[in-house]
Amino acid sequence: MNGAQSLLRALTEAGLDTCFTNPGTSEMHLVYELGRTADVRVVLCLQEATATGAADGYWRMAGKPAFTLLHVGSGCANGIGNLHNAGRAGSGIVNIVGANATYHQRNFPEHELINGKVADLARVVSHWAQEARSASDLAVLGATAARDAKSGSICTVVAPTDCHWEPAAAPPAPLAPLSLPRASNDAVAEVAALLKNGERSALLLGKEALHGEGLELAGRIAAATGSMLLGEMWPRRVARGEDRVPVTLVPYLAEMAVPMLQQYAQLVLVGTLPPVSTFAYQGAPVSKVPPGCHVTTFVTAGQDIVAALRALAAALDAPAQPSGRLARTAVTAPTGTLTSDAIGRSLCGLLPQNAILVNDGTTMGLTIVQRTQGARSHDLLEAGCGGSLGAGLPVALGAAVACPDRKTVLLQADGAGMYAIQGLWSLARETADVVVLVLRNDKYAVLEMELARVREGDANEKMLSTVRLDAPALDWVKLAEGHGVPASRATTAEEFHVQLEAALGRRGPYLIEAVCADDIGAFIDVVRKPR
């Protein structure tokens, strides 16, 4: 057995069976061994940001880690943005990053991203990163990475090429999963008393508290205490739609979030952090929590969230069912101008049962997500949990690979979509059942909104030239077809509704370029009002 064989056995025996990769010269021994095993599905990506983002989406829906295979430091660097998003989402991923041979590295210190310091680079977006020092060490690191990734960690193993081909010992037996710290009895009692003190309270939910048993438990706790359920701004996965426990997400804009939170005297954090603005602004507060609201952390994202909610429900003698569930919203097919509101109405009426809705729609996605609250039951994934653009297509790819029997629909902003457009090719190659809705407004609309924060008067043409994408305009139908994905263009609400219905009724990838007439002016008014 050589090191490559031992590493792959360590990963597969730990249950990792999916690899998203963009390999290079230093990974060919691993590619060879992957080709000889029937235990791993290999998904080729044309750029590393697609591979790392797909591994993020896979974790969110499969509940277990995939592994990536990346080419040296430059390949790892290309995937950093979506590893950052994955880290903020709490997604477990194992990265295998090639490197030149251990005896070769010192000869070319000027090529540090190829021959050295790869682990240093990876640590920026990894819970831990280590470089193998021998062929047998490779499998030990792989087994450790697999164990830690199952608990939601990003682990990077740097694999020099000589460690691939040299003889290696058999891999260690799969390591027992790490146990997450549990909430103490004192913490449970303290929060139970807090929620029964008569003050207006809200539970701010994150991670596992937003779907499955966690959300059901939160709903029961809300029923017992009269508390409201809020969700973190960018949830990695939230169960929503018909018959689901209702949750209101904290808005992105502080100007909208602070008024919403002013009604609460107490905010209890469950698997998330206090809500703050993504960026700091001159003269503006960072915290979205208004003065006078008492914030208490019940459990952090690194604790066993579901167990904590189970204990709190028992302490409160919570009812067996939540007090309310979302009802199906009746909608009619929209007509006239194509806007985000019209898209949301069509999607609310047509979204299939048990679909996966991925949002990378930035400004227009806000309206569409709100409109689909009363659709058939589905899961919502916010693609860019860490605020790094370009996660939409990769996360949708990973989600579709994890759940091939569920329809995935992606809300994709046109500007953000160009960051990892190569993901379209992987959707076609894998015949992934994904409908991509490109929300085309020919601009980085979110940046035009943010520009309004820093100016006194209107933006001039030079300023706007840095946020507009209309010279030349992107042709998403041609871009999609060039990557092997069939596509169409909609310019009216009627055209979009017909095309969406047809796309949802077929298998495989399809893209609709929705040419939208939305005006960013309403958002600009919101952010300029305090000035």
Describe this structure in words.
Helices cover 39% and strands 17% of the residues. With 531 residues, it is an alpha/beta fold. Helix 22 links the parallel strand 17 and strand 18. Helix 3 (48-62) runs parallel beside helix 5 (80-89), helix 3 (48-62) crosses helix 16 (392-402) and helix 14 (340-350) runs parallel beside helix 22 (493-504). The mean pLDDT is 94.
Whole-number average pLDDT?
94
- The value of Rg in angstroms is 24 Å
Give the biggest beta sheet.
7 strands, mixed
SS content category: alpha/beta
- In total, the number of strands is 18
Instruction: Give the CATH level 1 class of the largest domain.
Output: Alpha Beta
**Straight-line N-to-C gap:** 67 Å
What share of the residues does DSSP label as strand, in percent? 15-25%
Strands of the largest sheet, in order across it?
A: 9-14-13-15-16-18-17
Remind me, CATH topology of the largest domain? Rossmann fold
- The CATH architecture of the largest domain is 3-Layer(aba) Sandwich
Report the total helices: 23
What share of the residues lie within helices?
Answer: 25-40%
Spell out the CATH superfamily of the largest domain. Answer: Thiamin diphosphate (ThDP)-binding fold, Pyr/PP domains
Segments where pLDDT lies below 50 for 5+ residues?
none
| Broad shape | globular
Q: Give the domain tally.
A: 3
